């Protein structure tokens, strides 16, 4: 009887522990579902119906009038570039919508059609409310004018009155951190300084719809973080934001939905993680309709990920308590000789949020030279403070360079349950101090 009593007491904590483990996940799921319901009921803010845009690329270009006069019968043939082909989509009021695709897929062309810079060859575009475009470095800025003059002129062009532009001028300059360069002509600015000024003006306009191109990549890390904070603010205020980017982490972090373009055509519109995965598959050379392992991307001919796992204290694990040492590992076999391959790990929780990413490139490690037939085990160790949840590990190996030439990537190859005695509802539970000072 005594042993039975002990056994019963040992079982009792299991149920509340499981409930605590699920709590932050359930809170996130509830918030996500609630937002999705609100957006589904919201009116359409941007409507694109069967929009197409084609450019003519002449075989012979004339740079001077003299050339045209001397060679009046030179060939005037041209090629056609179908930049956008029959795109149809609807974006709801308050939605954060991402547009992704490889270079030349038509993302920026579509955004310029939305902004009215390009006139579509066919189809229709409808936008409800005031539009604020932040599309291309230098567009709308005059290099011969100062930052002060450019800020005021662009604010007026985007819909503010002169009085409103002057009232918000200090906020524009403060956000751009250009107080010391107010009277310097823009032609003497760096590309990053110009981006900061243009973005600062765009977010100060009382716009209902904001168009943002991938030019944020020009800004430094600190300014990018400020931009992300503004995205979060605008999203909470119910603004409609359309973002073109190559950064899949940003898409998954902010977007409610996303669209993948390829050669001007819509490949897919859907949930951000699914679109990010489809984008990676296109980038890594895999055709989306190939009948292959759904969780795998890359060519596998040069390097092959054999397995991946979580570990602690040298042992493979399926569960671990919060605060203990967590290890990520993968085993890779090389089928051809290669130098300095890039190894990477991505960790996601069970609702698909990316919570940790690392790679040998980010750590600035030379990984060495491997011959055909060699195998290597790659390990990463960290003191984890992740919130209770189930986590899935995606290992990848890429050719040296920017990391875009993936040799193998196996999504959600291993999983682990990280548990704790309490749950805060946050993604992380870092060690921290807490003070209450009277007076």
Quickly describe the structure.
The chain is α+β, with helices and mostly antiparallel strands and 439 residues long. 29% of the residues lie in helices and 32% in strands.
Level of helix content?
25-40%
Query: Nearest-angstrom radius of gyration?
Result: 26 Å
Mean residue pLDDT: 81
Strand percentage: 25-35%
Indicate the low-confidence ranges by residue numbers: 1-27, 285-294
Backbone structural class = alpha+beta
Distance, first to last CA: 57 Å
Described by the principal axes of the CA atoms, the overall outline is globular
Query: How many alpha or pi helices?
Result: 10
What is the total tally of β strands? Answer: 22
Question: Could you describe the largest sheet, including whether it forms a barrel?
Answer: 7 strands, mixed
Describe the protein's architecture and organization:
This protein has ten helices and 22 strands. The N terminus is likely disordered. Strands 10, 13, 16, 17, 20, 21 and 22 form a seven-stranded mixed beta sheet that branches. Strand 8 and strand 9 form a beta hairpin. The chain has 439 residues and is an alpha+beta fold.
């Amino acid at each position: 009887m005594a042993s039975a009593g002990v056994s019963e007491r040992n079982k009792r904590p299991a149920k509340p522990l499981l409930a605590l483990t699920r709590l932050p996940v359930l809170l996130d799921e509830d918030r996500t579902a609630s937002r999705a319901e609100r957006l589904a009921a919201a009116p359409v803010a941007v409507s694109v119906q069967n929009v197409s845009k084609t450019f003519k690329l002449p075989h012979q270009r004339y740079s001077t009038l003299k050339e045209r006069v001397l060679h009046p019968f030179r060939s005037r043939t041209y090629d056609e570039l179908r930049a956008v082909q029959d795109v149809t989509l609807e974006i709801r009021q308050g939605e954060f919508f991402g547009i992704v695709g490889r270079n030349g897929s038509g993302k920026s062309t579509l955004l310029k059609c939305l902004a009215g810079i390009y006139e579509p060859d066919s189809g229709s575009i409808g936008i409800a409310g005031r539009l604020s475009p932040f599309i291309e470095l230098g567009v709308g800025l005059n290099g011969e004018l100062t930052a002060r003059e450019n800020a005021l002129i662009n604010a007026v062009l985007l819909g503010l009155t002169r009085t409103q532009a002057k009232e918000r001028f200090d906020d524009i300059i403060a956000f751009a951190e250009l107080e010391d360069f107010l009277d310097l002509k823009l032609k003497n600015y760096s590309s990053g300084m110009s981006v900061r000024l243009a973005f600062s003006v765009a977010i100060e306009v009382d716009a209902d719809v904001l168009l943002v191109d991938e030019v944020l990549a020009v800004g430094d890390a600190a300014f990018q973080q400020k931009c992300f904070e503004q995205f979060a603010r605008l999203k909470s205020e119910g603004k409609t934001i359309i973002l073109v980017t190559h950064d899949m982490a940003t898409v998954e972090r902010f977007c409610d939905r996303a669209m993948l373009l390829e050669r001007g055509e819509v490949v897919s519109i859907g949930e951000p993680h699914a679109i990010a995965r489809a984008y990676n598959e296109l980038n890594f050379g895999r055709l989306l309709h190939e009948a292959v392992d759904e969780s795998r991307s890359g060519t596998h001919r040069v390097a092959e990920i054999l397995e991946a796992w979580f570990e602690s204290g040298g042992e493979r694990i399926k569960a671990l308590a919060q605060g203990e040492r967590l290890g990520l590992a993968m085993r890779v076999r090389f089928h051809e000789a290669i130098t300095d391959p890039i190894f990477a790990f991505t960790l996601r929780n069970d609702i698909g949020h990316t919570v940790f990413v690392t790679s040998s490139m980010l750590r600035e490690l030379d990984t060495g030279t491997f011959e055909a037939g060699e195998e290597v085990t790659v390990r990463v160790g960290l003191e984890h403070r992740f919130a209770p949840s189930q986590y899935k590990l995606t290992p990848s190996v890429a050719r040296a360079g920017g990391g875009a030439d993936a040799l193998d990537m196996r999504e959600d190859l291993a999983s682990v349950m990280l548990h704790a005695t309490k749950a805060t509802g946050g993604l992380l539970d870092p060690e921290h101090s807490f003070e209450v000072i009277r007076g």
